[in-house]
TrEMBL record:
Protein's name according to its UniProt entry: Branched-chain amino acid transport system ATP-binding protein
The ABC transporter domain, residue ranges: 4-236
PROSITE patterns in alphabetical order: ABC_TRANSPORTER_1 (PS00211), ABC_TRANSPORTER_2 (PS50893)
Organism: Sporosarcina psychrophila (Bacillus psychrophilus)
SUPFAM superfamilies: P-loop containing nucleoside triphosphate hydrolases (SSF52540)
Keyword Chloroplast: no
Keywords tagged on the record: Amino-acid transport, ATP-binding, Nucleotide-binding, Transport
Length: 237
């Protein structure tokens, strides 16, 4: 059974038709990646799934419930967390307070404490800076912080928008390992990535989006082997 099923989704920004009949599904336990050039509509899709944008047409079923057009808060409560692109931290709050926000729906104090330790083990830099205001972190550090918050949220479905953006190569590796770990601990993941090579290396399946439409889908191995994908998204390798 699919955890998430999107059918014929159409989303507009005023007169701009950003998603044109997108259909896809994500099964429980999977890592599914969305690949596409700048402006293809990847972020628009994640924003629509998390309730930040409302579709004009189409359905979104999540755990057998229709969530299209629901309030973002209700969607978070239902177990979907969205880590948006770029620096989305609360600048005036400390690093620690920002991470803690991820746990706002949880009551299991011991579990929260454990997850805090885990975040600090994965990202020692965040531990060093835990009392510092989040606005003073570098772009890459803010990206780590957003991931840390997501770990504390323990969602059923995690929507990740370009988690590797702006990170040094070593950190990119760490982030992808973290994504894999989160998945192995039971979180289903929908991952938007410019780094198609890395994304395909950890994903089960992938969808390719071009100017608002899904133009190709398949298992990660299939897409990795496809000449079309190699030339367009994997730098010809
Ligand atoms: P990138 O990889 O560059 O982040 P993307 O695939 O995530 O790209 P989207 O951000 O979803 O692309 O944008 C899809 C299209 O919608 C683009 O043509 C973009 O210009 C347009 N768009 C996005 N946000 C808005 C907005 N707030 N108002 C008007 N048009 C928008």
């Amino acid at each position: 059974m699919s955890m998430l099923k999107v059918d014929n989704l159409n989303v507009y920004y005023g007169s701009i038709h950003a998603l044109k009949g997108v259909s896809l599904h994500v099964d429980q336990g999977e890592i599914v990646t969305l690949i596409g050039a700048n402006g293809a509509g990847k972020s628009t899709l994640l924003k629509t799934l998390s309730g930040l944008l409302k579709p004009k047409e189409g359905t979104i079923e999540y755990l057998n419930d229709s969530i299209a057009g629901k309030q973002a808060q209700a969607i978070v409560k239902a177990g979907i967390s969205h880590v948006p692109e770029g620096r989305r931290v609360f600048a005036d709050m400390s690093v620690e307070e920002n991470i803690e926000l991820g746990a706002f729906l949880r009551k299991d104090k011991a579990g929260i404490q454990q997850d805090f330790q885990k975040v600090y083990e994965i990202f020692p830099r965040l531990h060093e800076r835990r009392k510092q205001s989040a606005g003073t972190l570098s772009g890459g550090e803010q990206q780590m912080l957003a991931m840390g918050r997501a770990i504390l949220a323990r969602p059923k479905l995690l929507l990740l928008d370009e988690p590797s953006m702006g990170l040094a190569p070593l950190m990119v590796k760490t982030i992808f390992q973290v994504v894999k770990d989160i998945n192995q601990e039971g979180t289903t993941i929908l991952l938007v990535e410019q780094n198609a090579n890395m994304a395909l290396s950890i994903a089960n399946r992938a969808y390719v989006i071009e100017t608002g439409r899904v133009i190709l889908s398949g298992t990660a191995e299939e897409l990795h082997a496809s000449e079309e994908i190699k030339n367009a998204y994997l730098g010809g390798h």
